[in-house]
Amino acid sequence: MSFKKKLLIGTLVTFLLAAGGVTYYFFNLYQEAEKAVTESYQDLERGEHSEQREEEVDPSEDNISILFVGVDDSDTRQGTSSLADALVLATFNKDDLSVNMVSIPRDSYVDVSYQYSKDKINHTHGFGGLDETVSVVEDLLDVPVDYYVRLDFMAFVDTVDALGGVDFDVPYYLEETDSTDQGTVVIQPGEQTLNGEEALAMARTRQHDNDLERGNRQMEILESIIDQTLSFSSITRYNSLIQSIGDRMTTNISFDQLVSLHEYVTGNDGLEIEQHQLEGNDLWANDIYYFDLDERSISDISKELRSHLQIDSQYVEAKNEDDEDQGL
């Protein structure tokens, strides 16, 4: 056998072995991802779809909504007492590949099912669990919440670190407690890449502004996380992100739905993201601070989200008829 033939065969064998190794790696990674997401899966008590939907939606074909719930699971707030410290509802429109996000202030004064009087929306998770939080958001904005993603603080920190940080323009010098409430995070002002602890500090702080600005920062950071995720240049980064999920996330999005959603949002040049903020006024009742939401703001954003989901008015009409029949 000539030297050239031996070289050609050797090169071919090396290529096949390398290709096989890459295929095995991808298959292995796929299995790890499926296992992690499956272990994080937790359905809502309501069942497979919102009462505002006639049937379950398909992320690969339908416009959908996802409620992101950031939970404070610190040592003093474990289990059912965990507060929903961040609430962002995102609607996805498959036709124009756009996302509408609305931040719901944590102190919003809302109707709840576990007591006669209104309560802060961030208490709903602690007193009623995820179903209560989802139900309250649906009633407040009159849109279906198809899916949820619940993350605790450490999951958020690990996710940002797995992404290699997120880009953010820090508006001011900040000193904030870390995720353990034991240490201090110090951030200088200016454009920079924040690590997990720094991103969490920016998302949590209310030292220099209010809940509305806090909500805007949370949406900006979430948008940066989405951008970073969609711009991965290495499959190993996905592996790190998957491993960061661990047991710190729960969701009712199945692995197959997550895969179809990923293919949907990465199928073109990216997503167009628009941010919305609920307006309102400060309210004190029994020496407790609340944020009293403006009804016009709720109505305007509700219409925007329903239009973005391309939901017709049939549900609203049916709901109004039911209310009239019940004398409400």
TrEMBL record:
An example Gene Ontology biological process: cell wall organization
InterPro entries: LytR/CpsA/Psr_CW_biosynth, LytR_CpsA_psr
Keyword terms, alphabetized: Membrane, Signal-anchor, Transmembrane, Transmembrane helix
Entry keyword Transmembrane helix: yes
Residue intervals of the Cell envelope-related transcriptional attenuator domain: 84-229
Record-linked Pfam families: LytR_cpsA_psr (PF03816)
Annotated PANTHER family: POLYISOPRENYL-TEICHOIC ACID--PEPTIDOGLYCAN TEICHOIC ACID TRANSFERASE TAGT, POLYISOPRENYL-TEICHOIC ACID--PEPTIDOGLYCAN TEICHOIC ACID TRANSFERASE TAGU
NCBIfam families xrefs: lytR_cpsA_psr
Record family assignment: Belongs to the LytR/CpsA/Psr (LCP) family.
Protein name: LytR family transcriptional regulator
Name of the gene encoding the protein in the UniProt record: lytR_2
